[in-house]
Amino acid sequence: MTLPAKPITELYRLTDLFTDYNKLTRVERYTLIPIKANMVTLIHGGQFSLIRSSDRLLIEKQTAPALYGLSGNTRSLSYIRIYADTQCYYQLVPLDIFMQRLVENNLLQLTSAVLSWHIESLLYRDEMMMGRNSYQMIKGNILHLNQLDEFMRAKINVADFIVKRTNLSRSIVMKVLSIMRAKNHIDVKRGKLLAVYNLPDKLN
């Protein structure tokens, strides 16, 4: 499975369009970044986690630039929370003002790339997680982690990442990782994933 390509160019153009709208808000690590109905949350800097509200399952880790709230749907926004993993900078822009400025600058078409990426990312996650056994979920998340950029990966503990993404027990995750390391399928040092070599379909 290939991680859907983030529309970096489109996101930078959209977030840069509002740098003069109001002052950016700075938040520290572990702080909640607000998402509100009829507001667009623009994240200009930092690394953050998308968490499912109901059970704190980790949906994804992301880096700026990013934006959320294009639908303006209160119900859909209630499903997730955004927590800063590092110092982050964000701003809230009313949805009507956001859309008006896009129309004025002939940039409305950029939103389709962002929305498509969000949908592809959810489908990618479903393909990795739905109907899979424990090993398949662990394998999928290792491959996923290996596709993240090196800077982000260096900050992520592989066992914590898998446990939070899957809700599998830590003992199961640690056992599988130990076997994979012993068989030279992966290289992990100090909890960080350094390399992935060959992951079998089944772990014997």
From TrEMBL:
<protein>
    <recommendedName>
        <fullName>IprA winged helix-turn-helix domain-containing protein</fullName>
    </recommendedName>
</protein>
<dbReference type="Pfam" id="PF15977">
    <property type="entry name" value="HTH_46"/>
</dbReference>
<feature type="domain" description="IprA winged helix-turn-helix">
    <location>
        <begin position="134"/>
        <end position="201"/>
    </location>
</feature>
<dbReference type="InterPro" id="IPR041687">
    <property type="entry name" value="HTH_46"/>
</dbReference>
